[in-house]
Known about the structure:
The protein has helices spanning about 10-35, 115-125, 130-135; strands spanning about 50-60, 65-75, 80-85, 90-95, 100-105, 110, 145-150, 155-160, 170-175. It is an alpha+beta fold. β8 and β9 form a beta hairpin.
Amino acid sequence: MSAPCTALTRPARTHRMAGQLVLLGICLAWLTACVQLPQASGSLADKALWSGRLSLQVHSEPAQSFTGSFELKGSPASGELVLNSPLGNTLLVARWSPVEAVLYSSGQARSFSSIDALIEQSTGAALPVAALFDWVDGKATSLNGWTADLQKQAEGRISARRSSPLPQTELRIVLDRPAP
């Protein structure tokens, strides 16, 4: 007579372990569904969103230029700007509020006193964020030596130029869709 086997046979253990893994997976999926990721800046989800392509050329020594896609949301007071390379890789994310601006790039975060300071240190040229929001919204705002050409804004094309102070800077924007 053989002794009673108290240990599970290999196929039974494997089947039981697979069942436990499935149960664990279901529990994790359920928990993950309950988690809400924090918004970038509180109420940004309710604010305007523009996306498209841009080209920025700064005529400095050495000259600097950037071409890529972007997403701009929020307002001049609080918002978010995401810049992507022509291949679609995220190059940087800038988030700002009335208190500070933070630049996320290359796995690092850098804080600045304002979005204007962040942009000037990052690009070498001051870009008027308040005017940028007006331009994509179709309002011809001139600020800090900048002049915008909005003749083709209804088609989603905007160009702006800064002649003073130096360095001269050119910005071209092509929106994916008309402004909201």
